[in-house]
Amino acid sequence: MKKILLILLINCCIVIQINAQQFIDKATIEFEVKTNLKKTMGNSNWAEMLSENLPQFKTGYFQFSFNNNKSIYKFDHWDENTKIPEYLRGSDEQNIYYFDHTANKIFQQKSIFGSNFMIEDSMPFINWRLTNESRIIAGFNCRKAVGIISDSVYIFAFYTDEILIPGGPCSINGLPGMILGLTIPRMYISFIATKVMLIGVKEDEIKPISAKKFNTRTGFKTIILEKTKDWGNAEDEDSKAWKNQFLWDALL
Questions:
Q1: At 241, is the pLDDT very low, low, confident or very high (cuts 50, 70, 90)?
Q2: Is 204 a domain residue?
């Protein structure tokens, strides 16, 4: 009798585990986002002077909350040891990304030049290549994928199909599961999920951004290119690299 009860208990635990893996349709995921500030500023004399009193890394925590096929990604708090000036914090604190994966729509609030730009468009398409590499992140088995954004910037993601929503940090999306780890080497930035919380999801906050006027992503890119066309020396490699960093960050 004891043996039968033990077998039933084991089977029950297996069923519970499988269901938990298959039916995570609502949760809040915390991401630790780390940026190498001194690398992003380049090697010019001006950049070295500017970064002299800055820490090597900027570390913040962001939350990705989702319910069924709708999600929102936004800033939560800074690491207590991160001491950086306002001009390096503002955009992170103001940026918001809302996704409707069923309708293939993205609504963004992007803070650039001290102003918030509203964007409504189809979700950006990323051509992914899956690999056989895997790792455990926040307790989930994740598979590695490689993609390209902004025409030439490689991104390396680890996603889990145990969380079925095809989302990720910022505007990164399109894998057969949730991205829990992301690295963009040319932007010197990494995102790693630190925990997945199944309770306490603020469903009322998972809603589209409202605005009187929206730009498309293409229109927003045109605005950025126009506002930065006179930045730096077009022949100087450091100037071009810094300008590229700014553009990639704006379009992320």
A1: confident
A2: yes
